[in-house]
Write a structure and sequence with these properties.
The chain is of the alpha/beta class. The chain is built from 6 helices and 8 strands. Helix 3 links the parallel strand 5 and strand 6.
Length: 190
């Protein structure tokens, strides 16, 4: 049986990767738009952002403060390699900041940057680097008990291992590639 979480983070590289019709009105969902240099049409992004507001889905922009301000996003997502503190002045504009990390040093950096959630990678084995290290449930839970900040698992989460998340002591989880590959994952979340 799948254990439900308080927050679901979906990282998308294009707004075409996710169909908002599959998501019912809820405050549980957070979409992180990670454009990787190729930005979708600004008019389409504004329309997508308005739909997110109507459905009460939080919308974050990755590493692009100007785009976040233009879209009136809920906040900014700071990747693990981003180590600057420019995003701290966004707190006064009620921008929430989410960060990602891979180890203790990066978690500490994200706490200094004012992140409310930290996406910790990799929970399970990922398809693109099968020989890379991953945390696993037990080691991930040690991170949860070590840090008071809200740590969210990311990496290798698929339909086949969603049930393992009931053992993870986190408020939510984040998925990246599974959103694009298998949109049926939304059916399991409702």
């Amino acid at each position: 049986m799948f254990t439900f979480k308080k927050k679901y983070f979906f990282i998308v590289e294009s707004i075409k990767d996710i169909n908002l019709r599959n998501i019912k009105k809820s405050n549980k969902f957070i979409i992180i738009y990670r454009n990787n240099g190729k930005i979708d049409n600004l008019d389409h992004l504004i329309k997508f952002r308005k739909t997110c507001k109507i459905k009460k889905i939080k919308f974050f922009v990755a590493n692009n403060i100007q785009l976040g301000v233009n879209l009136k996003s809920d906040g900014l997502y700071i990747s693990a390699h981003n180590r600057n503190f420019k995003s701290l002045h966004l707190k006064k504009f009620n921008f929430e900041i989410i960060g990602s990390a891979h180890n203790h040093k990066e978690i500490f950096m994200k706490k200094l940057q004012g992140c409310s959630y930290i996406l910790l990678s990799k929970l399970f084995v990922v398809d693109y680097k099968k020989n890379d290290r991953y945390l696993g449930v037990i080691k991930f839970n040690r991170y949860i008990f070590t840090y008071l900040n809200k740590i969210i698992p990311l990496g290798g989460i698929k339909i086949s291992n969603l049930n393992k998340l009931k053992n993870v002591k986190s408020d939510g989880f984040a998925i990246l590639s599974e959103v694009k590959k298998k949109p049926a994952i939304f059916d399991r979340l409702f």
